[in-house]
Amino acid sequence: MTIFSKKIHDGELFVDHKNSPGLTPEQAIKFGYPPELVGEGKQMYAPTVGCKHCGGSAYLSPMRTREQRPWCSICDVYICDGCDYLRKQPGYIHHTFAEIAEIALGGRFTVSGTMSNLTITPKTEI
User: Fold this and answer.
1) Is there a contact between 72 and 87 (Cβ–Cβ < 8 Å)?
2) For the whole model, what pTM was predicted?
């Protein structure tokens, strides 16, 4: 019997400034890193998760104090904060990145917009 773990799709991020000046607090904030972990002489390790909704990835900050990482009960996977926000909006229709790619590559529909404002239109025959 195989035991499935949500961690099977995880990756990792390793930022090593052990022998470098590191990032300034301003640079760290701009790149979304905790300043206290990426300064001079510091090393930061953080797991990453892929977002099945948008196809992107997010690192799991060791300094996170908010609620747990968002999880989609339909996909049964973790998702990024941006997609979690979108799925809570009125009129949200659940699509994964793979489903949208399949629709677009199928040739019968035109896909336009962004993941937050997606438009799928049937192609018309001329």
Assistant:
1) yes
2) 0.65
